[in-house]
Design goal:
The complex is a heterodimer of chains A (about 180) and B (about 425).
Chain A lengths: L1 H19 L10 H20 L3 H15 L7 E2 L12 H13 L4 E7 L6 H21 L7 E7 L10 H7 L1 E8 L1
Parallel strand pairs in A: 2-3
Antiparallel strand pairs in A: 1-4, 2-4
Helix pairs in contact in A: 1-2
Chain B lengths: L1 H9 L1 H20 L3 E5 L18 E9 L2 H16 L2 E3 L9 E9 L3 E10 L4 E11 L3 H17 L8 E9 L2 E8 L6 E4 L3 E7 L5 E8 L2 E8 L4 E6 L5 E6 L4 E6 L6 E6 L6 E2 L7 E6 L5 E6 L6 E6 L6 E2 L7 E6 L5 E8 L2 E8 L6 E2 L6 E6 L5 E6 L6 E6 L6 E2 L7 E6 L5
Parallel strand pairs in B: 2-3, 2-4
Antiparallel strand pairs in B: 1-6, 4-5, 5-6, 7-8, 7-30, 8-9, 10-11, 11-12, 12-13, 14-15, 15-16, 16-17, 18-19, 19-20, 20-21, 22-23, 23-24, 24-25, 26-27, 27-28, 28-29
Classes of the chains: A alpha+beta (about 180), B mainly beta (about 425).
Chain lengths: ~180, ~425
C-alpha cells in the first residue's frame, strides 16, 4: 500500500516536473543543476495544486458578475428537505430562461443551498439536487445545458443566519451567478 | 472570503510553512516511540475485565516527582485514566490503593525522561518498570504513552490515549479548515487551510487523511499523507464527490454525482477499480464500510426521507435499518461491526442514536441541544460528536453509557464533524 502511494506520488511528481521544466537547451548540464531543477518544480506544483491557477480567472469574473448581476436572476426557493420546483418558482425560472435566451453570450452557475437544519453532508447532496432541478427546468424551456453549470454549497453559505422559518426559507434556494461569456 | 483566498494564493509559502510546522510536530510525535521496558511480566493478570457487565473501579494512586514537568505529566495521566471510568484515584499518602504508579521525571536540555513503575500493593511487588524518553516538547505525548501502558497492563486492552481526532473548523461562511488534535482536545494542528472541506476519514493505518474539499467550484476527494505532508487528488469529476471511509482492504467508499445523480461508489486507494454500487433516482450519500469491509451503511432518500440503509459491499441486498423519525443521517459503525451510530432528528433537534445493524435495539445517546456527527473510538468505548448545547458548535467526547460528556475544543472555536482515528502504532 505504501509502495503504491509512493509510486503514485512519483508518477504525479514526474508529470508535474516535466510540465514545468524548461526545454533542455544544452543536453550536457551539470548533474547538480539538474537535480535542483527537478526537485524545485515538484514542490511548487504541490502548492499550486492546492490553489489552482484557474482561480484568478474565476474571481475576476465573479467580481464582474457582482457589479452587473441582473436583477431578473432571482433565487428559486424550495421547501424543507425537498428539491422539486414549486409552482411559485416557475415564473422565476421562466424569467431566467427568457433572460438567457435574450443574452445568448451569458453563462450562469446555479448554486444549490440549504437551511442549517439537517446535517452538512446530506445538505450538500440536497443542495446539488436543487441546483440540478433548476437546471433541468431551464433546459426543458430550451436553454442550452452547456450554458448552465451547477455547484452545491449545502448549508455552508447561508444568506441569513437567524433561526426561524423566514430566514430558513431564504436559505433554501438555487442562486444564479453570471460567469461571463 | 475572496480576499482571504487570494491572500493564501499570493503566499504559497504560507502553506509550506504550515506544512513544515506540521512535519515538525509529526516528527516529535514519532520520537515518542523510544521507550525501554525494564521489567517484563510473564504472568499477566487482568486487574479490570472491561467486558464484564458490572465493573468495580480499581483504586489507583498516581504520583510523579522530579523535574517541574512531573506535575503536568501526573495530571495528564490521571485525566486519561479518569475518562475511562474504570479507576478511583487515591492520594499517595492515603491507604486504600491497590495499584501505585510512581514516576520520576528527568529533564535535560533537549530531552525528557520518565522512569516509572507500577507497584501491585495486593501482591506487594513491582509489576512493571519502564523508561520513556522523548523531545522536551513532547510532554503530552510521553504522558499519553504511559497512560496507554498503564491501561494495557490493567485491562490487557489497547488504550485510546495516543489516538487523534480530525475535525473541521468553520472560519467564515464557505470556509472550513481541516484540523487534527489529540483525543483529549490538546495539540491542534491545521492540516488543510484552503477552501471548504467537508467529509473526511482516516486510513486504516492512521497515516492518511482522506477528505472532500470544494475549491474553485469543484468538489474533489484528496489524500493527505501525514508522514510526507503531501496532498494528492484521489478522485475528481463533475458534480459533488464526498468521501465516506476506507475499508480494511484500503478501498475508499464515496458518493459522486459524476453521472448527474448522487450514487455510491468504491475505488482503490491508488485510484483504480472504480465501481458504482447504487442506481437510484434519489440521493445516496455518506457510505461507510463496516469494520470487516463486508457491508456498507449509507444514507438514502429513496423511501421519501433521508434514512440509514445497509447493503453488501458489492451493492446487493440493500435494506433500511432506521424507521423512527423522518431525518436520519451520518451513519458510523462501532468497531465490532454490531452497531450503527447516527444523527437523527427528534422534536426538531438533531440527536445521536445507536441501533444494531439489523435495525433493533435503538437507543438515544444525547438529549441537550443539537448533537451531530458521531464517531466511535477504536476500542468502541467512547464517542466523539459535535454539539451546540453550550452555544457555539464544538467537539465533545463521552463514554458510550452517556457519562463524562466533555467539550474538548475551545468555546470560541466553531468546530464540528469529529472523526476518531484508528490506533497509532
Amino acid at each position: 500500500m505504501k509502495k503504491t502511494l509512493i509510486v503514485l506520488l512519483m508518477i504525479f511528481a514526474a508529470g508535474c516536473a516535466k510540465k514545468h521544466l524548461p526545454p533542455p537547451q544544452e543536453p550536457a548540464v551539470q548533474k547538480e543543476t539538474v537535480k535542483k531543477e527537478t526537485v524545485e518544480p515538484v514542490k511548487k506544483e504541490f502548492v499550486k495544486e492546492v490553489v489552482e491557477p484557474k482561480e484568478a480567472k474565476l474571481q475576476e469574473s465573479a467580481v464582474i458578475a457582482k457589479a452587473e448581476e441582473p436583477s431578473v436572476l432571482k433565487d428559486v426557493l424550495f421547501d424543507y428537505d425537498k428539491y422539486n420546483i414549486r409552482d411559485d418558482a416557475r415564473p422565476v425560472l421562466d424569467t431566467v430562461s427568457s433572460f438567457l435566451k435574450k443574452n445568448g453570450t451569458i453563462n450562469v452557475v446555479i448554486e444549490g443551498h440549504c437551511d442549517e437544519r439537517g446535517t452538512n453532508e446530506y445538505n450538500l447532496a440536497l443542495g446539488e439536487k436543487r441546483a440540478k432541478a433548476a437546471k433541468d427546468y431551464l433546459t426543458s424551456l430550451g436553454v442550452m445545458p452547456a450554458r448552465l453549470s451547477i455547484i452545491t454549497y449545502g448549508e455552508e453559505k447561508p444568506l441569513c443566519t437567524e433561526q426561524n422559518e423566514t430566514c430558513w426559507q431564504k436559505n433554501r434556494r438555487a442562486h444564479f451567478v453570471v460567469t461571463g461569456k | 472570503m475572496k480576499s482571504q483566498q487570494s491572500e493564501t494564493r499570493s503566499k504559497g509559502s504560507g502553506i509550506r510553512g504550515l506544512i513544515s510546522n506540521f512535519k515538525f510536530q509529526i516528527f516529535i510525535f514519532l520520537l515518542i516511540t523510544c521507550h525501554l521496558s525494564l521489567v517484563t511480566v510473564s504472568d499477566a493478570k487482568v486487574y479490570i475485565d472491561i467486558t464484564s457487565p458490572a465493573i468495580q473501579k480499581l483504586p489507583i494512586s498516581i504520583t510523579a516527582k522530579g523535574a517541574p514537568e512531573a506535575k503536568e505529566i501526573e495530571s495528564i495521566i490521571i485525566n486519561d485514566l479518569d475518562f475511562t471510568g474504570l479507576f478511583s484515584f487515591v492520594a499517595p499518602e492515603v491507604p486504600g490503593a491497590e495499584i501505585i504508579v510512581r514516576s520520576d521525571v528527568d529533564v535535560s536540555l533537549n530531552e525528557i525522561t520518565v522512569l516509572w513503575s507500577i507497584i501491585d500493593l495486593v501482591e506487594n511487588k513491582e509489576a512493571l518498570k519502564k523508561r520513556n524518553t522523548a523531545s522536551r516538547k513532547s510532554i503530552r505525548a510521553i504522558a499519553h504513552n504511559i497512560s496507554n501502558d498503564i491501561y494495557k497492563f490493567i485491562t490487557e486492552k489497547e488504550g485510546v490515549f495516543r489516538t487523534k481526532i480530525s475535525y473541521l473548523v468553520s472560519v467564515s461562511p464557505g470556509n472550513k479548515e481541516l484540523y487534527l488534535m489529540d483525543w483529549d482536545g490538546y495539540s491542534p494542528i491545521k492540516v488543510i487551510p484552503v477552501g471548504l472541506t467537508s467529509s473526511h476519514a482516516w486510513s486504516n493505518d492512521s497515516r492518511f487523511l482522506i477528505y472532500s474539499s470544494e475549491r474553485n467550484r469543484a468538489w474533489k476527494i484528496y489524500f493527505f499523507d501525514i508522514n510526507d505532508f503531501r496532498e494528492i487528488v484521489l478522485f475528481s469529476s463533475n458534480g459533488l464527490n464526498l468521501v465516506g471511509n476506507s475499508s480494511p482492504r484500503d478501498e475508499i467508499a464515496f458518493s459522486s454525482s459524476k453521472d448527474g445523480n448522487s450514487e455510491i461508489y468504491t475505488i482503490n486507494k491508488d485510484g483504480s477499480n472504480l465501481r458504482k454500487l447504487t442506481h437510484s433516482f434519489g440521493i445516496d450519500v455518506s457510505p461507510v464500510f463496516s469494520p470487516d469491509g463486508s457491508s456498507i451503511a449509507l444514507v438514502s432518500d429513496r423511501g421519501g426521507s433521508p434514512q440509514i440503509y445497509i447493503m453488501d459491499s458489492n451493492g446487493s441486498g440493500i435494506r433500511r435499518i432506521t424507521f423512527e423519525g423522518s431525518y436520519n443521517t451520518s451513519p458510523t459503525w462501532s468497531p465490532d461491526g454490531k452497531w450503527i451510530a447516527y444523527t437523527g432528528m427528534k422534536d426538531g433537534k438533531n440527536q445521536i442514536f445507536m441501533v444494531k445493524s439489523d435495525g433493533t435495539g435503538l437507543r438515544q445517546l444525547t438529549f441537550n441541544g443539537n448533537n451531530e456527527s458521531p464517531s466511535l473510538s477504536p476500542d468502541g468505548l467512547f464517542l466523539a460528536f459535535d454539539s451546540d448545547r453550550d452555544g457555539k458548535r464544538g467537539i465533545y467526547i463521552m463514554r458510550l453509557n452517556g457519562d463524562e460528556q466533555r467539550r474538548i475544543t475551545p468555546k470560541d472555536t466553531k468546530a464540528m464533524a469529529p472523526k476518531w482515528s484508528p490506533y497509532f502504532n
